Amino acid sequence: MVLTVPVKDGGSYLGDIPLQIDTDDRLTFPSIRIVQVLSELLSPDVLENLRTSFGGKVQVGPGDFAPVGIGVEYDPRTLELRFNIPTERRASRAVSVSALDRTRIGELLKPADFSAYINVRSSLDLVEDGFDEGLRSPIMLLDGAVRLGSIVVESDAIWQPGAFGGDFQRLGSRLVFDDTRRLVRISAGDLETQARGFQSAPDIAGISIFRSYSVLNPQQVVRPRGDRAFRLDRASTVEVVVNGQQVRRLQLAPGNYNLRDFPFTQGGNDIRLNILDDTGRTEVVQFNLFVDQTQLGKGLSEFGLYAGVKAPLGLRGPRYSNDWIASGYYRRGISDAFTLGANFQADANSRMGGFEAVVGTRFGTIGTNVSFSHVDGIGSGHAFNATFQRLIQRPSGLGDTFNVFIERRSKRFAPVAFFLPENPYRFELGGGYTHAFTTSLFAGLDARFSKGRGGRPDVHNYRLSGGWRLTERATLNAEARYQRDTLGRDFSGFVSLIVRLGRYSTVRSEYDTRDNRFRSSYQTLSGSGVGSYNVTADVERSDNGAGVSVNANYFANRAELGFSHFGTYTRGFGNSLNQRSTLRLGTSLALADGAVSVGRPIFDSFAIVKPHRSLGKADVIVDASSFGNAANSGTLRTATMPSLPSYSERTVPLDVKDAAPGTDIGQGAFRVFPSYRSGYVVTVGSDYNVTALGVMIDVDGQPVSLVSGTATEVAHPERAAQTVFTNRQGRFGATGLAPGKWRIEMLDAARSTFEIEVPADANGVIQLGTIRAREGK
């Protein structure tokens, strides 16, 4: 007898297999199929030994698994083939801690083939008192991008009508192409140079190739993952706790596991696994790991190479020279504990090269940079720094932090583009230590010493600080400082009190003895997105004078509005010295595949959301939450979603205010994975929003009673059909229809078929009256 039965590992279903039961109750099943079912469950060596023990057999039985220590039994009551696999025979499975499941609604949208935007951030100053009183010329900061296929053109500039020396200054323009498969960005034009170690970031016009995981793949965990293997002999619940906070709860079957992708913080991390098996037995696995944010996981690499000509910024824009220049760096994770890098810079007159290293140990992280330079006509030089960071965890859950650094630069050391290098200090060293006495009280000490060169005096800076959380709403901080430099010796104190007035408002008062300065400030914010605002106000008095400042920002649907006022006075708020008020406006114009929208400034990628004509004047709300919404279509009938970061998946909810009953708005959300500076067009609603009502009569003149059927669009038979039901009198309602011809096929005995026509101007509910079935089947 041959049965198809499920294969089970404990309570886990692995797949189905044909099971042959002979007259003597001997069990056999296909060897190829069982190896396939168990391939993900067994360790590679056990799986290979199993194949070898089969010896080429086509059919195998429970006895063939005995050599590798695996038990097999058949349960005739449940018709299940069960495998008993020892833990040591199981494969190690990776479980990600930080990659928590996200809500995914619908398919990823495709970005527009062509998109563009421009941001305008303008400010207008009015000087009421002081030098050059009156209304000043407005200043406009312009930036924007055009994306055509996979190529981006981006630029930014400053425009100030009537400004001395030129009213328009282009800051930089470039072409950008991202190779997302290799995680490489290629740019040509005015480059955005990145620096490592002792490098400078010179202005270069040319071409660059660049990789940064935080830019091109921000969702990837590139720091050491903290892989930690553990074994479960029974089905268990595992709680993962990092630095006292539970980050994930897992239900795991027996086996070997490797936890990875911990959400580490900078510095020391205390990881604890609380394991509770199905018998109630508990076990705790605990370990510590120190992580520096500059570390890379094993085998990962970041780099940047920039080459071209020097292009310093002039009054009207970059000034392109004939002087070549190049800069670059490369970093790689040699292991999860060791990251190594090298860098260089060169032009016609100077060269510089060096290396960096970051080593993570159980005691802390050690980092170092070493560089050597040569400038023609000046000489050679070198530079070196080293740092050590450590977090000391205590059993109480509190911790101390400790860091120390040393840096040395020779007199003639210089990166490229530095004229006549002169380093005033032989070396600098310093460090700090912070101790938490309780969750509400801490104190710290830090120091810095700089050794002068060539007669320059040494510089000393020492600080003792502390903080005390008086209540849930009030915190007191204080500092005692000692400084000795070219101006002499100075001992000063500082104290501040921060009081939260509510969830979104705070008052801060502080006093500094150095210039007898007292300052009090208030800040508040409300909501996010459309209709949100924030306000900050400060009052300050010192031996040098007094001042008052106010700053407020309001975020509208189409623009960001701001106002600020800054006033200075003589000591004691006597005479006014300067009074300046500023009005600010920021807005954007976006274009994507023919759709145009005005909205708040765009930061990277964007989406234009527009209502379908079937929605009439209903308002589309984008990304609504309890704190506000990102945008709404309003009277212009388009909305700009201005903040879609590139290479980060995002699901944006949609809603329609005051929509007619039965309106189809689709899935109520859209999901995107934006490319760099890409644009999307999202239409809310569709033509498929018509509901047809009527009565069905079959070919014999009788109502088509109490049956279901389907409505298919004749012009688009590939679309999913709509379900139709009738009542006892044959009345029906067909929803989700669009203008055009539809075929309705019912499942009554006569298989009645109807054809209806939805008018082109139909919207909402239409009455068809009585419709009769077509003759024939």
Automatic annotation (TrEMBL):
One MF annotation (Gene Ontology) recorded for this entry: fimbrial usher porin activity
GO-annotated biological processes: pilus assembly
Name listed for the protein in its UniProt record: Outer membrane usher protein
PANTHER family in alphabetical order: OUTER MEMBRANE USHER PROTEIN, SLR0019 PROTEIN
UniProt cross-references to Gene3D superfamilies, sorted A to Z: 2.60.40.3110
Domain of life: Bacteria
GO cellular component, one term: cell outer membrane
